[in-house]
Amino acid sequence: MVASLETDVDLALLWAQKIQQHPLEPLLEPLWGLQMSAAALSRLATYRAAHPSPLRKEALRTEKFPDTAEGKALREEMLESAQKNEDIISAMVQKYAVREEK
Q1: Residue 58 to residue 50: CA distance in whole angstroms
Q2: CA distances from 100 to 12, 32, 49, 67 (A)
């Protein structure tokens, strides 16, 4: 259950970035009814800043794959994809997370 919720946080941040980058976003957002509120993105980003994703590259590095050429290729592909996702999530956290003032 927890892993599923953690995945939902990552996916929400990843999709929010994709939607924001889409040139038709200002036209489609009202039509779809998928308004990305800054408050919702801020909550997700602040949570992710305080709780690192279990799907980040560093965490996935320990996953076991078959010791074959195909297994090694799959592992590399997974780690490369995880790094790309981690970069996007990090950018969204930088943009939306609420920083604690000291």
Answers
A1: 16
A2: 23, 34, 11, 45
Pairwise CA distance, residues 67 & 47, whole Å: 36
Alpha carbons 41 and 14: distance in angstroms, whole number: 11
Is residue 47 classed as helix, strand or coil in its secondary structure?
helix
**Which amino acid is it at 46?**
T
Q: Which residue has the tokens 């609420």?
A: 98
Residue recorded with tokens 């994709």:
18
pTM (two decimals):
0.81
Mean confidence (pLDDT) of the chain: 89
Q: How confident is the model at residue 37 (pLDDT cuts 50, 70, 90)?
A: confident
Domain locations in the chain? 2-96
